[in-house]
Design a protein that fits this description.
The chain is an alpha/beta fold. Helix content is 39%, strand content 15%.
């Protein structure tokens, strides 16, 4: 097809292809084991598949309500109250979304206006910054502190201004696997008290927390919850990332702003999948033991690579493991990740891709949401490098 000859300026002029797409394509090209992009290589629950089929056959194939299927919102409300002691009205304070990234996008679109400042912690999930810029916001960066990727709250205080409109937090954290602790939420509460700052809390890995650590959801903290959007993901929780089904929680006055935008972005989401997840949630064992499930995978992966020259950076949540390779080579992260994919047939993600200045700490991210034989093959490669 002939290209358009007129002048077209992208709203994200400098934005390239995401590192996830690049590394996954490279893995496919070189037939490498793909521990780069965050998706499982094992099957989802057969029961859940049967439920989707059931609701399709029952005729639940037309538009759901804009806010989402009522039964699903009710189950989310019950789950959140059971886990975190917080009561969200299913009608007014819960909305189903086409995945977590849509929830992030719509939240930012509903709140951020030209020159509003948003604080983002680096390394950061790669969608945050482009979405802020897309809606005219200004990103203020705070860097998580090594070796355990913790927030320096004194630094946060210094960069807050009268234009700060939002702070984005992410726990368990992608890409590092770090988690927020009670003291972190208490500091955030103090910092934002008597302000107009909105919190966007990305909690898509809420059920993947290890070593008997409690997930510190914003929902546990009433003052914070009153100014927060909380994002969750059924795609992550139930190993079905391709279903792109998530949800968002917010107090009624904030949810009203969200829905004004949401109705014109996707309007609604997949109907039979919503009904299926609603029924699946009635059995809490379908999500309560996920932390133990993924901890076993983490521990198995770490045991397999004990003889390697990679240094382990502790992962307390998500299904990602960071490994430091500074004992192996001085190559930049992106170059080493590409060489590993081509020469050793193992794909990972350079953590430098999650920094605006490509900060290089000689650290790669590996996804361990894989079958044991996949982890064994990957570990064998890592022990050879």
């Amino acid at each position: 097809m002939k290209n358009f000859q007129g002048s077209v300026k992208s709203k994200l002029q400098k934005q390239g292809t995401s590192i996830f797409a690049i590394m996954s394509a490279l893995a496919q090209e070189h037939k490498a084991i793909n521990l780069s992009q965050g998706f499982p290589d094992f099957e989802i629950s057969q029961k859940l598949i049967e439920l989707v089929n059931k609701y399709m056959k029952k005729g639940y194939n037309q538009y759901a309500p804009m806010t989402g299927v009522a039964e699903l919102r009710e189950q989310i409300s019950l789950k959140v109250e059971s886990l975190y002691g917080a009561k969200y009205d299913p009608q007014k304070e819960i909305n189903i979304t086409a995945g977590a990234t849509q929830a992030l996008h719509t939240t930012i679109a509903s709140i951020i206006q030209d020159d509003d400042e948003v604080i983002v912690f680096e390394p950061a999930y790669d969608a945050y910054v482009p979405l802020i810029k897309l809606h005219g916001g200004i990103v203020k960066f705070a860097e998580l502190k090594l070796p355990d990727y913790r927030i320096d709250w004194q630094e946060v205080k210094k960069i807050i201004s009268n234009r700060t409109r939002m702070i984005i937090i992410n726990s368990p954290h992608n890409p590092t696997g770090s988690v927020l602790h009670p003291g972190d939420l208490e500091e955030l509460e103090k910092i934002t008290k008597d302000s107009e700052i909105i919190i966007l809390s990305d909690e898509v890995y809420e059920h993947f927390v290890f070593d008997n650590i409690r997930h510190e959801s914003v929902c546990r903290y009433p003052e914070l919850a009153s100014r927060s959007f909380v994002v969750g993901s059924f795609g992550k929780t139930f190993h079905a990332t391709g279903w792109k089904t998530g949800f968002i929680l917010a107090p009624e006055n904030l949810m009203e702003k969200f829905r004004k935008i949401h109705q014109f972005v996707v309007f609604t989401c997949n109907t039979p999948i919503q009904h299926a997840i609603a029924e699946f949630l009635t059995d809490s064992t379908n999500y309560e033991d996920l932390g133990k499930f993924y901890q076993r995978k983490r521990d198995y992966f770490l045991k397999l690579i004990e003889g390697s020259r990679f240094d382990v950076i502790p992962s307390y949540g998500t299904y990602f493991q960071l490994l430091n390779y500074s004992k192996i080579t001085d190559e930049p992260e992106d170059k080493f990740a590409i060489r590993m994919t081509k020469e050793f047939k193992l794909a990972s993600i350079p953590v430098s891709a999650f920094y605006r200045e490509n900060t290089d700490n000689k650290v790669l991210r590996f996804c361990f949401a894989k079958e044991e034989n996949t982890l064994e093959k990957a570990a064998e490669i890592l022990c050879r490098i």
